């Protein structure tokens, strides 16, 4: 019930007018049947013209009101879905990195695709169900007016028919859910085969296993689809049979209880036949309420979860005004990963370090020593659990991390390269050409209409492009995580001997994670990490 209220709130439309139109559309249908019934009973030549006029008016009333209802609900549903998407987008954008990692991508994708699609599909069914309920009430009055006994019998029949239909549809929904699950597994298995095609190409037995697995999933999908088809067929036949039974009830059973029924048998039967379609629509609308409510609950729960992870909003002047800081310092910055029981699995011991303007610092260390963890802390992507980051001696406050990150040009080891130059207005094309030339990409890629002409480059070339994007912000601080790992020896030398020193000479603070010992001599300071501890080598 609460969800229904929430739904009405979310729908944001003129509820009074909507309800009125719902009633008018039902009234239009009832009037159409009543007029036809009266016309059938009339004597030849008795008011034919007037009946035709009433008939047309009833149809006009029904079609205009019904059109309004359907259009409004379609518009309302799409508006509501757009708002839900906008809310999720805003909350996702505002959530901090660690929380987003914890929530994962799947629930967000599911909310903005599957759940919104469910609402879009089921909402019209609910409205049609509601409208048909009103119609059923009107038709019941009409049948009661024709014959009290017919009214009672049809009422009992209607309750049974709706119960029967709802039970059938509930079973169908469960089977559809099961089918979705097997389909997802089938798609996952296929994606795995496509993603791992190189690995499969090198091992015949592995390829065979993958095919066997996919065939098994395909078999399950076929079995579930077959069950649904059989369920539908049974449901369809039984619904049609109910329809005939109702005819029998009207023609054979009702007259057993009343003497006067013969006069109205045609009218009452016709009205009852109209009710069958309505009963089926009402029955479809009942599970649709559940589906919509579940989808809405999922979306609202995700929104609440994301909102709870919002980062502190940025302050007006959270950092020292000078754009190029003289120092960036880590003051006992520490962090610990924990397992689901809260026990630490890896601890970055408090790190102290000071990095200077115009100087290059290297951090090195073995796999799993904590370099990337520290890197995420230094970039401000993850907030330190203890300690502080200081810019020119001033600690970066929680509401200053956005402004702090704005001063950093960064390329992560698992970076993502947007093809468009997002967030960069008025980029000087000559600066882009100059950087492309410096990174030896001239002729490979260009900038056109604010986007690179291609990102289909080698992995080393793509990484050069990622660094160009970072440099186009003219960042006073540059942080690179194993940037040179996939560069060839020639360009590695260009990068360490030429590019990095000149970027530092421009007055930037440069911090690189690197394993390239032969170039450690260019670093002004060198740090080593082992088991979550950082020590200064020089
Ligand atoms: N998201 C995470 N959740 C839990 N533990 C993590 C997570 N990320 C990293 N760790 C753990 O933290 C430790 C340090 O990982 P980190 O990625 O910082 O190492 P690294 O020095 O960058 O290693 P590599 O050189 O292999 O990239 C590892 O033992 C790892 O298991």
UniProtKB/TrEMBL annotation:
Its main location: membrane. One of its GO terms (molecular function) is ATP hydrolysis activity. CDD domains: ABC_cobalt_CbiO_domain1. Residues 328-537 form the ABC transporter domain. The chain crosses the membrane at residues 20-39, 51-70, 123-145, 151-172, 236-258, 264-283. It is a multi-pass membrane protein. It comes from the Bacteria. Keywords: ATP-binding, Membrane, Nucleotide-binding, Transmembrane, Transmembrane helix, Transport. The keyword Membrane applies. GO terms for biological process: peptide transport. Belongs to the ABC transporter superfamily. This is Putative ATP-binding cassette transporter. It comes from Roseibium marinum. The lineage of its organism: Bacteria, Pseudomonadati, Pseudomonadota, Alphaproteobacteria, Hyphomicrobiales.
């Amino acid at each position: 019930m609460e969800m229904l209220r929430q739904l009405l709130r979310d729908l944001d439309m003129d509820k009074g007018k909507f309800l009125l139109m719902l009633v008018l559309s039902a009234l239009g249908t009832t009037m159409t049947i009543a007029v036809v019934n009266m016309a059938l009973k009339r004597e030849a030549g008795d008011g034919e013209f007037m009946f035709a006029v009433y008939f047309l008016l009833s149809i006009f009333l029904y079609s205009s009101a019904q059109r309004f209802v359907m259009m409004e609900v379609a518009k309302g549903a799409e508006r509501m879905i757009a708002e839900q998407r906008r809310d999720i987008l805003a909350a996702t954008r505002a959530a901090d990195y660690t929380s987003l990692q914890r929530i994962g991508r799947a629930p967000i994708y599911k909310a903005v695709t599957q759940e919104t699609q469910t609402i879009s599909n089921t909402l019209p069914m609910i409205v049609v169900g509601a409208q048909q309920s009103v119609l059923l009430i009107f038709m019941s009055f009409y049948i009661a007016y024709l014959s009290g006994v017919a009214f009672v019998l049809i009422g009992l029949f209607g309750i049974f028919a709706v119960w029967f239909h709802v039970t059938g549809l509930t079973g169908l929904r469960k089977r559809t859910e099961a089918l979705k699950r097997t389909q997802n597994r089938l798609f996952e298995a296929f994606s795995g085969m496509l993603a791992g095609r190189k690995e499969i190409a090198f091992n015949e037995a592995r390829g065979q296993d993958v095919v066997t697995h996919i065939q098994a999933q395909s078999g399950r999908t076929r079995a579930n689809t077959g069950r649904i088809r059989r369920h539908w067929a049974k449901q369809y036949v039984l619904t049609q049979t109910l329809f005939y039974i109702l005819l029998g009830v009207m023609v054979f059973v009702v007259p057993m209880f009343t003497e006067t029924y013969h006069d109205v048998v045609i009218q009452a039967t016709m009205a009852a036949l109209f009710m069958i379609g309505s009963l089926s629509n009402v029955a479809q609308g009942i599970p649709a309420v559940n589906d919509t409510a579940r989808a809405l609950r999922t979306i609202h729960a995700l929104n609440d979860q994301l909102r709870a992870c919002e980062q502190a909003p940025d302050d007006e002047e959270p950092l020292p005004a000078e754009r190029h800081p003289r120092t960036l310092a880590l003051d006992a910055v520490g962090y610990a990963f924990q397992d689901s029981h809260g026990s630490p699995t890896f601890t970055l011991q408090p790190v102290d370090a000071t990095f200077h303007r115009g100087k290059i610092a290297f951090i090195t260390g073995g796999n799993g020593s904590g370099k990337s963890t520290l890197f995420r802390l230094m970039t401000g992507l993850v907030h330190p659990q203890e300690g502080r980051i200081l810019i020119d001696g001033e600690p970066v406050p929680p509401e200053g991390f956005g402004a702090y990150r704005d001063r950093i040009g960064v390329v992560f080891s698992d970076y993502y390269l947007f093809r468009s130059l997002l967030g960069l207005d008025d980029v000087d094309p000559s600066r882009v050409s100059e950087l492309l030339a410096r990174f030896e990409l001239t002729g490979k890629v260009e900038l056109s209409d604010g986007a690179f002409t291609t990102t289909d480059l080698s992995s080393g070339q793509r990484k050069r492009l990622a660094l160009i994007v970072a440099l186009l912000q003219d960042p006073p601080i540059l942080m690179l995580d194993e940037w040179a790992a996939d560069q060839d020896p020639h360009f590695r030398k260009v990068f360490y001997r030429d590019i990095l020193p000149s970027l530092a000479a421009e007055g930037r603070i440069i911090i690189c994670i690197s394993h390239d010992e032969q170039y450690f001599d260019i670093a002004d300071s060198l740090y080593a990490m082992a088991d979550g501890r950082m020590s200064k080598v020089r």
